[in-house]
Design goal:
2 copies of one chain form a homodimer. Chain A is α/β, with parallel strands linked by helices. Chain A is built from 12 helices and 12 strands. The first copy, chain A, folds into 3 domains: 44 residues, lambda repressor-like DNA-binding domains (434 Repressor (Amino-terminal Domain), Orthogonal Bundle); 128 residues, Response regulator (Rossmann fold, 3-Layer(aba) Sandwich); 144 residues, Response regulator (Rossmann fold), CATH 3.40.50. In chain A, strand 8, helix 11 and strand 9 form a beta-alpha-beta unit. Chain A binds a DNA duplex (30 and 30 nucleotides) through helix 2 and helix 4.
Chain lengths: 358, 358
DNA sequence: TTTCATTATGAGACCGGTCTCATTTGATAA
DNA sequence: TTATCAAATGAGACCGGTCTCATAATGAAA
């Protein structure tokens, strides 16, 4: 009748102290591994702890030290291999320095991002790594900075926010990728991204609040301009937010009379759906449509044809932000750094001259 | 000179109380949303909290309530899409019930698993979901149970441990998959798994400490026996622990004179590497080698040929354990349940009769 | 107006650690 | 032997919440 919850009371420092016949303070010194204790007493306490099977309460520890040993990470979508690889980079770097990671998804939505941040700061994480879903509303990030919690940005820079940031050279990458398509003879190229606007159509760069995509669009447009392509803005396609969504956009695109002859996909998830949609429409890569994508995902080398990709140093992206953040956590008060990692294109078999141009 | 750490002291309940001219207890009641307070005072406290930008310290809250609102999850490898999907199932179910998830990797190593568990219990998570890497040494899981922390098992059952468990019908799935290969005319089929033994070779089932793989091997052997295949044990290949490792095993296998004509891969990561290795060796699927794999990963439908897979309800696997665990966390003291979810085979194009048999 | 029940508030213990400061112990030097 | 000092230990405050219990205020009943 007294054991419905059957919550066993955990062994505490005081319990151990009593068992070892020393004061709580002394037992704490031994168990917490600080201060000085004589070897004899230490052994006694350790033995008592073992007898009682003492497990430190990390919560209480964090409470009094003010440090939790946790780094909070907020990414857009952990299921995207890009993010899961970056997160592994973060985790590895964190573990190496004795930190743990607690992960939250924003689903690329600003409100969810805010909620996640609220949760993590509530848990008093020591530092935060965020992939900001929007550059428009960053008040919550400002709040974090103001509260004194170190913050670092992953994959997306925020010009207005002067914090440690690690990104790749998105503009350059998009430029080179587009140029590769143009060089192959394409003029009806399409850049497809998950980012969306209210009107679901691209008008100008000021509508785009995701810095990486912004950069990519600029690189894309620049390469188009260089190639003398008229009104390249019309070639930017937004809203590939989910697999069905992507599928629909691509299918619809391909059914147009003036269908694109080449597609630049903004990530590997989009690329995979695009590839499927192209196949389903009865078209072939690269015969009918050329394809290139950001992120050298595992599967891209195994399709027929294998996909030409923009290889981003994803793991290192994560590793680098984590290292930057941890350096700050350890007290090195260096000025915020903005690291831009290089990318390079891996040419495989998904780009060919357009058939109409033959 | 006084601001090298510049750690801003966070606003506490006492601060708000003072600002609102009420006692700490009253402010706490309002901010913690418990007990009774008059409407007038409530408003005053809320206003003061807003003015001071009060953010509750979740740590302290957990400290006194004994509940953290966190579910700890330990999986083998988050980068494996199988696990990342299952984890999303867990996260979604958790979020729906107001819990958060903290994730740790075991890398399928028992010591790392123990360390991860130590970490999570130290953080006083409310409950744990584990994919046990071994059925041999489960003392640490017993400890958890003994301490009163609810535990649930994901994807792998432990016959000796009577706790909530959700798995798929691995034995049946392996049996059906193998039978599919046998029916196509294969007798030299190979089952390839990441699990390994000291001798790196399979002798008998008692060497295998991963329950899911154990079941799969039994299903595999049973189908082989049914087909009258002699000494099917020799067809079990272990040790595909990493991408290069898998690659090496497959390449070596394929170079043997008696090379297998069909392969059953234990997960999609192994299948992908296997597929690559087959290609590299200059062989084709399904012309030279038939292939079937566990887990209907995204990419499997997009290769040429698309891969025939055993479709596991991965998301629901995660969702179901989480729901079981949460039910227990909420105090429903039902007896431990063992749920086994069904799988089914999606036939695509990677199985054909063996060429030699033609 | 007094009494009693009821509601609202306050004081302070508590969670399980850390950490400061005072006190005791033991060894060394005078 | 006694003074001096460092090392070892203990007592208790503290972190920021929750929560119990006592007290004060309010309102209805007598």
């Amino acid at each position: 009748m007294k054991t419905p919850a059957l919550k066993i009371r955990a062994v505490t420092v005081s319990d151990v102290a009593q068992e070892a016949n020393v004061s709580k303070a002394t037992a704490a010194r031994v168990l917490g591994n600080y201060g000085v204790v004589s070897e004899k007493v230490r052994e006694g306490v350790l033995a008592a702890a073992k007898r009682l099977d003492y497990r430190p309460n990390e919560l209480a520890r964090s409470m009094s030290t003010g440090k939790s040993g946790i780094i909070g990470v907020v990414v857009g979508d952990i299921e995207n291999p890009f993010f899961s690889l970056a997160v592994r980079g973060i985790s590895d770097a964190a573990k190496a320095e004795g930190f743990n990671v607690i992960l939250a998804n924003s689903g690329e939505q600003i409100e969810t991002e805010k909620a996640a941040l609220r949760l993590l700061t509530g848990k008093r994480v020591d530092g935060l790594i965020v992939t900001p879903s929007e550059s428009r509303d960053i008040s919550h990030l400002r709040d974090i900075l103001r509260s004194g919690t170190p913050l670092a940005l992953l994959d997306r820079a925020l010009s207005d926010l002067d914090v440690d940031t690690v990104t790749v050279d998105d503009k350059q990458a998009a430029f080179m990728a587009t140029r590769l398509l143009v060089k192959a003879g394409h003029s009806n190229v399409c850049y497809l991204t998950a980012v969306d606007t209210d009107e679901h159509a691209y008008r100008n760069i000021d509508q785009i609040y995701t810095s990486s995509v912004r950069d990519r669009i600029q690189g894309f447009l620049q390469a188009c301009a260089e190639a003398g392509i008229d009104k390249p803005e019309r070639l930017v396609r937004l809203g590939a937010t989910s697999q069905p969504e992507t599928r629909a956009i691509v299918s619809e695109s391909l059914r147009q009379p003036q269908r694109p002859t080449a597609i630049l996909a903004s990530d590997s998830v989009i690329a995979l759906e695009t590839f499927k949609a192209i196949r389903e429409t009865g078209l072939s890569v690269p015969g009918d449509i050329s394809l290139i994508t950001f992120h050298n995902a595992d599967w891209t080398s195994v399709t027929s044809p294998p996909i030409t990709v923009i290889d981003q140093p994803v793991y290192n992206l994560g590793k680098a932000v984590a290292e930057l953040l941890i350096r700050r956590l350890k007290g090195h008060a260096h000025p915020p750094e903005r690291v831009i990692l290089p990318t390079h294109i891996i040419e495989r078999g998904s780009i060919a001259p357009p058939t109409t141009a033959k």
